[in-house]
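Order emerges. For instance:

***
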Amino acid sequence: MKVLIVEDEIPAQEELVRILKKHFPDISIAGIEGSVKVAASCP
């Protein structure tokens, strides 16, 4: 499963990655963006 994390606070980004990898070890983080505007423009 691929996920895109959209979160503007760095500590929260890191915590989300930690939690996702703990509960979903096969997960693939496709990217981390700091705003919805930037994430919406991702291909």
